[in-house]
Amino acid sequence: MKKLYTLLSLVVLSFAVNAQCTDLFFSEYVEGTSNNKALEIYNPTSSAIDLSNYAVIRMNNGKTTSPDTFRMNGMLASEAVYIIANSQADAAILALADTTGSATFYNGDDALTLANITLSTVVDLFGVPGVDPGSAWTWVSGATNNSTLVRNYSVQSGVATWDTLEWVSSTIDDFSNLGSHSSACYPPKATEPAAAVDNPTQEAVDVISIYSQSYTDPATVNYYPGWGQTTQYADFVIGTDSMIKYSSLNYQGIDFDASQIDASSMEMLHIDIWTADVDDIEIFPISRASGEKAVKRTLTAGQWNSFDIPLSEYTSQGLSMSDIFQFKFDNTGASRGTGTIFIDNMYLWKEPTLVYTAADIADIIMLDADLAPTNEGTLYEITGVVYGVDLDGNAGLSFTIIDETAGMNIFNFNDVDDYVVTEGDEITVKGKIDFFNGLLELFADSIKVNSQNNTLKAPTLVSAPSEATESDFITLEKVWVTNDTITVWPNNGNVELTNEDMDTFQIRIDRDIPGIVGMPVEFDTMTITGIGGQFDNRAPYNEGYQIFPRGLSDIAEWVDLSSVREIAVQTSVYPNPANNNLTVAGATKWDNFVVYSIMGSEVSAGTLNNNNLSVSNLENGTYIIKLVAGEQVGVARFVVNK
Fold first, then answer.
1. Measuring CA to CA, which residue among 614, 620, 627, 626 is closest to residue 582?
2. Are residues 408 and 546 in the same domain?
3. Which of 188, 241, 305, 407 could form a disulfide with 196 if both were Cys (CB 3.0 to 4.6 A apart)?
């Protein structure tokens, strides 16, 4: 044991400063369940290494005395790994192991040294010799216990001071990387693609193909016209996928002979390029009228490079896309004349022409048992009248339209077609079904105004908001605030309401609703008109129902009209329906009047002039008028129809 300690002392005192890729280093460390432990050592050099000159020295629990020294044997080939495993490890580890031994008798808190015992030098460290970390060395993204650690690809030599940043942590009992290692000492040397690139997904109707098995290429295309180039041409096949191989590339053309391509309706040029040695490529469409213009792209070696080049990068240089009769590739890097590229799926394309199904709103409300849409993402075209205001502020849209069958919230994060939300507009909206916290929406792609100043329907009288009132125009009658301490309407907040049935629900005061934020809650008992909404962030989406008033005038004092009728004299008015003026019939000269909506909200009041009053400011609908002359009270029902 004394001899081993002397050896360790010599090793620790002398660390070999090795150039990169010139000596062994630890490449993987497995500290798994029970005896699932393994240590991988990597040879990054260009020659085989005699392992009999090396040992793994393990120092337990921060000790520097009585270390365990595990010597190795055999030759380790260039770029190969040597695996030491615990003899009781999982069969998957043992199948990869070169040997078993005491070097793996660690538990996450033991430092390991890889030493050249012939030269008495340390070539790599794992952990910190002489330091007891407790159960393990830990850092933000890893630990030395209950995990697998793999050395970064960029590491090319051992270290004198252990650096956790050189290791990538994986889960416990992950042996998937054991048995091989890649490092920057020997980057991949592939000279051709091992697999074909994915097939394109654009519809053929939106594509002009130059070269692709997924589409129809031009009948007269020539992929190897003789332009005096050094480039060589060949077909290259992987499985059933063919591609173009241009080797010894300086420049190369594609020619459509006497024909040409009109790409003026296209938006992108797509091309897939694989290379091992070409850094940059210039791609030229060539126009009969305006010549050639280049766009350069940088290639990453050893993988498919998929480019979608906006044609605006060419047209902004003055290139016409209506008469393209050739393409050219130019290798502008150091490999000019020697480099090789593989080309597949070269085509011009545009965004697909979307197909929207025209439908009534009720026909696109398709909900599952959780009240979530079963048709989310489906494209529709709907037409309806705008109710309320834009609840999304400056940028973006969130408002309601209603047709004869139902209502729908219209939404987009951005403004659409410069549309300014105006109540009473009839609009046609194209978009896809979306869903946000229980609220069904149409995510708008386009908005077209058909007409303006359309008559709104009479609101539906309901006792409480529900799934049936979502995006509908509704009135809640005889409701009040549950919290007596709320005296003003909030800024972008909810206020809980209740009714005689003790239902609870929310009135949403959005900051974009005009004239309401910060105003006093004037009435104890209210009649509220507005748009039905919902905010429920988990399934089933059957809670969080709301009403959105359109303004302060939608919140009125509730009036018990039944008591008015009991004491009032039934009175006659004409014309009925009226559109401008209304006259009270009979000999009684009435002094004052109050007009109520059919829901009980006061909408007008004043003094009569010879039993006449103006109703020109009232919207179409049914109303009740209360008349007063001294102690006498009269009541009549009338209709406004303009």
1. 614
2. no
3. 241
Element (H, E) at 567: helix 561-567
How far is residue 533's CA from residue 437's CA, in Å, rounded to a whole number?
Answer: 10
Strand 357-358 vs strand 121-126: parallel, antiparallel, or unpaired?
unpaired
* CATH code where residue 415 lies: 2.40.50.140
User: Which of 402, 419, 451 lies at the terminal end of a domain, its last residue?
Assistant: 451
| Residue where a domain stops, chosen among 386, 419, 451 | 451
Q: What range defines the domain where residue 320 resides?
A: 204-349
pLDDT on residue 11: 41
DSSP 394-415: SSSEEEEEE-SS-EEEEEESS-
Which residues have CB under 8 Å from 36's CB, separation 6+?
A: 30, 86, 89, 90, 93, 173, 175
Judge whether 178 lies within some domain: no
Q: What is the structure's pLDDT at 310?
A: 98
Annotate 423-432 with b (16+ C-beta within 10 A) or e (fewer).
bebbbbbbbb
pLDDT digits over 537-572, tens only?
999 999 999 999 999 989 988 877 665 544 567 788
Structural domain includes residue 385: yes
In the prediction, which pLDDT does 3 show?
36
Is 388 found in the same domain as 375? yes
CA distance 13 to 113: 12
Beta strand residue intervals within 375-472, DSSP E = 379-387, 397-402, 407-412, 426-436, 439-451, 460-462
**Which of the 8 DSSP states describes residue 200?**
P
Q: Give every residue of the chain whose pLDDT is below 50, as ranges.
A: 1-13, 565-566
8 Å CB contact between 149 and 170? yes
Report yes or no on 224 lying in a domain: yes
Residue 257: what pLDDT? Answer: 87
Instruction: Report the pLDDT value the prediction gives residue 560, as an integer from 0 to 100.
Output: 72
Give how many domains the chain has, as a whole number. Answer: 5
Does residue 65 sit in the same domain as residue 159?
yes
